[in-house]
Structures are given as structure tokens and as C-alpha cells.
Amino acid sequence: MIRFFTALFLLLFFGCNTGIKTRELLFRNNEFAIYKLKRENLKLKNPTILPPSFAHPIDISEDKILDVMGNLKFKQESSYGNLFSYVFDEKEIREFAGDLTDGLRLLKPNEILLIVSKYNPQKSVVSHYVRTGLYLWADETSFHLLFGEIKVELDFEDQGNYFDWSKISDIAFENTPESDFILPDQSFSFKQVDGFKNKRWLVFEKRNLSKLRFEKRKIPDTSVETSVKADLINDKRKIKPDDDSLLND
């Protein structure tokens, strides 16, 4: 009987505790966290999809981080229409680039880096933070970015607590049916997985990194602002027509 309840407890606890659990924190602040994960702890359906070891540590400058990440765009599909946006805000990258370069220098050949960034360019009490999570590593010839969540909107109650906003779902190395994906660009190629392009796995050739340049944005990213307006509209709709607080024209 004791064994039964012990097994039931373990099943309930680990069954409900989803997300990446085997990560080791390297650094965090109020809006950014990086972790290292051992290759042996990654969830791989095909272990040969990654090399036995990586070309780590990685020595890269803060400016080159901006060159690599600053031009990435994604598409999000929904029944309401399609959203096109940058993956990262320029200021967001500039704020975490220094800590990211430090973390990459600490990586060992049997580890990859996990990045979790939350950001809110509006800095408004009524606007939501959005969260992006990805793996980053390098082999002898290439620099790899594998995205999980891309600008996922956080609930207000999860925004301030580190243990809430830093908890992300597993990042799949295989192709999965997702509603958002990275848009193609000449600066990288998509990794071929089982004969199909994984549009969340970006491969940057090391020999071409010196040619990459961040392109200054002419139009500000309004995706978060649109989210704020949507929340305000929804709040107005929640008010009943016969509410005494409403004034008649």
C-alpha cells in the first residue's frame, strides 16, 4: 500500500511539472536568464541529430550578437490573421548581450545554452510582457539557434515572479506543428530534420558571421502595443450595458 501511494505521488508530481527541468542557472536578472544543459539530458528522439560534443566555449562580441539576432523576424498564424514581427527588440538584445557573451564563454563541450528573455518595450502597467526561449550552441562550422516559444504573451500574474516567467516548455529538435515560425533570410539556413526544414532551427555559418550587420529599423515594432489595445477593448466589452457607472449620451 505504501508503494502504491508513493508511486501515485511521483506520477502526479512529475506528470504536472512540465518544462525543462535539468537546467543549471548561470545568470538571471528581472528580465533575462541563461542556463546550461548537458547534452545527455536533452530530449532527443534521434540522438544523432546533434554531434557527440560541441565547439565550446564560444567567444563572440556583443555587437555580433546584435548582428546575428537583431534581424530575425517571425510569422504567427491565427484565426484572426497573421502577425509579422521581429523576434527581439533592439533594446532587448543590447540589454542582455553582455550577459549572454559571458555565459557562452562558460560553456563546456558537452553543454548547450538555454536563453529565456521576457520583454515589454511599452513599460506600461496595462501592457503584457512577452517571452522568448531558445537553445544556442556551436559546432566546428556553424552557430545554431533553436527556438521554442517566440514572443508568447505572459499573464499579469506570471510577469513579476522569476519562477513563473522563467518556466518554459520543452524545446523540440524535431519538426512540430506550430503556429509561429522564423521567416527565411539570407544570413542563415534552416536545419533539415527528417528531410524537412525546421523553421525554428537556424544555422549560421561561422565563415559568414563577419559579414552580418544589424539593420536599423525604420518602423517600430507595434505587436506589443497592439496587444495592449486589444486588452483595453476586451476590458470595455466586459462592462455590462446596464452598469450604473456608464453615462448616457
Percent range of helical residues: 10-25%
* Structural shape: globular
Total helical segments: 6
Largest sheet: 8 strands, antiparallel
The helix/strand class is alpha+beta
For the record, give the distance between the C-alpha atoms at the N and C termini, rounded to a whole number. 70 Å
Low-pLDDT stretches are 1-18, 224-249
Strand content: 25-35%
Number of strands: 11
Question: What is the helix/strand order?
Answer: HEEHEEHEEEEHHEEEH
The pLDDT mean sits at: 83
Radius of gyration: 21 Å
Structure write-up:
With 249 residues, this protein is α+β, with helices and mostly antiparallel strands. Helix content is 24%, strand content 27%. The chain has 6 helices and 11 strands. The protein has helices at residues 2-16, 62-69, 90-104, 156-159, 162-165, 223-237, and strands at residues 24-28, 32-38, 73-78, 81-86, 111-119, 130-138, 142-147, 152-153, 180-182, 189-193, 196-205. The strands form 2 sheets. Strands 1, 2, 5, 6, 7, 8, 10 and 11 form an 8-stranded antiparallel beta sheet that branches. A hairpin with a 2-residue loop joins strand 10 (189-193) and strand 11 (196-205). Helix 2 crosses helix 3 (90-104). It is globular, with a radius of gyration of 21 Å. It starts with a helix and ends in a 12-residue tail after the last helix. 27% of the residues are buried. The model is unreliable at 1-18 and 224-249 (pLDDT under 50).
